[in-house]
Amino acid sequence: MRRTNPHMKNKILGIAAPLFLKQGFENVDMRTIAREADIAVGTLYNYFPNKRVLFFQVFETGWEEVLDRINSLCTNEKTSQEKIRVFLKEFHGAVIERRGLGQELLRLSLESPEEKGRIRQVELRLKERLQDLLLETPVEEKFRRPLARCLISSTWSVTKEGPDQAENHFEFIDWLMENLIADKGEGKL
Hints:
The chain is mainly α and 189 residues long. 76% of the residues lie in helices and 0% in strands. The chain folds into 2 domains: 1-49, Orthogonal Bundle (Arc Repressor Mutant, subunit A), CATH 1.10.10.60; 50-181, Tetracycline Repressor, domain 2 (Orthogonal Bundle).
């Protein structure tokens, strides 16, 4: 097995992500990525055996960065309500920012259980993180997973609508948390 440099791998991912976002999966080839990274095509293949593997790694790495940012931002918030709002706002922004990758992913036919599993893992990590934040609320354990799923799904759905609807959505989330899951001991779910 050839030795690889983690810094070079990150450089390749950083170059490939905007190319996939701007030009789409089909319109980007490994030669273009290698040229932009200022490396030989053979070197690129040492890190990623094909464009599809690289694309999935870009997708996963992007969401890992979002989760890291969410974790960092949540440490600055004091209440569970603020943490959940930060999570959902960051998730919303990331979906909009990465819409091109998501659309490309939907266009690709997922060929293997491994590819489906990789996407599922990203979804699960997001839901689990939100469920962790719900541990800090009076929401009953049996409702945490469905509530996390509902909050993520509705926030994802509103990304397809205009900014007015997004603002309305977050006002609704504030209302929901104020009335159902704020640490008041009232309106316990």
